[in-house]
Write a structure and sequence with these properties.
One of its GO terms (molecular function) is proton-transporting ATP synthase activity, rotational mechanism. Keywords: Membrane, Transmembrane, Transmembrane helix. Pfam families: F1F0-ATPsyn_F. By secondary structure, the protein is mostly helical. The chain has 2 domains: about 1-55, no CATH class; about 55-100. Helices cover about 60% and strands about 0% of the residues.
């Protein structure tokens, strides 16, 4: 599952005509060219099938039509707020009996 996802992610980085007839016919680079052709021929073509699409929170917020980083940013701010609240309450407990 992860291998096809990684291959699918690499399809945008691949120039479509990387193996020209001149490069294939030359003797020195034919082994390298064949390795490149083998790698790119294994890449999946077309859109991701519905059975392999991400579901749950990842599919809802990070992949798909509503993809954004807002949930991650909201999580950071919520954790900051919780930490600040705990720190403030501890500081109030410190001042309960005496000042600095």
């Amino acid at each position: 599952m992860f291998a096809t996802t990684a291959r699918r992610a690499l399809t945008g980085l691949v120039p479509p005509k990387i193996a020209t007839p001149g490069a294939i016919s030359s003797g020195t680079t034919s082994a390298r060219t064949q390795a490149v052709i083998d790698f790119y021929s294994k890449l999946p073509k077309g859109p991701l099938p519905a059975s392999e699409r991400a579901t749950g929170l990842r599919g809802k917020y990070f992949e798909g039509a509503n993809a954004s980083g807002k949930p991650l940013l909201a999580t950071v701010f919520i954790l900051f707020g919780i930490g600040y609240t705990i720190d403030y309450q501890m500081h109030l407990k410190h001042h309960k009996n005496a000042h600095h």
